[in-house]
């Protein structure tokens, strides 16, 4: 029973850490992220045209989830919304990766790992003010 409770806590913490960043992001920081994609991945004009609508769709879906999350206090509902946010991000990655070269995919993987490390650090700082 304790093992199961710990696994549930670990899963909830993992999802929360993964999705924490989008909850505090402003449209300006989202634009910066798109700019980072352009510059770090050296996207072609065609790639930019293909990826920008995907990024906009991702942002709209995350904004909707964030609005729903602000309106609920139930942990179960928040956990479900965090799972949805994670799925939105996974969908974005799955749609975007085929548009990139092997070299760009490698760099993008590094960018996502860096972002995840930053999210975890912010989460730790938020938990231990």
Describe the protein's architecture and organization.
The chain is mostly helical and 129 residues long. The chain has one domain (2-127). It is built from five helices and no strands. The chain has helices at 2-24, 27-41, 45-70, 75-96, 102-127. Helix 3 runs antiparallel to helix 4 (75-96). The radius of gyration is 16 Å and the shape is globular. The two termini are 31 Å apart.
Beta strand count: 0
The number of helical runs is 5
Order of helices and strands: HHHHH
How many domains? Answer: 1
Quick one: biggest sheet? none
The computed structural class is: mainly alpha
Determine the oligomeric state from the structure.
Answer: single chain
**Percent of residues in beta strands:** under 5%
Shape: globular
**Rg, nearest Å:** 16 Å
Helix content: over 70%
Give a concise summary.
The protein is mostly helical. It has helices spanning 2-24, 27-41, 45-70, 75-96, 102-127.
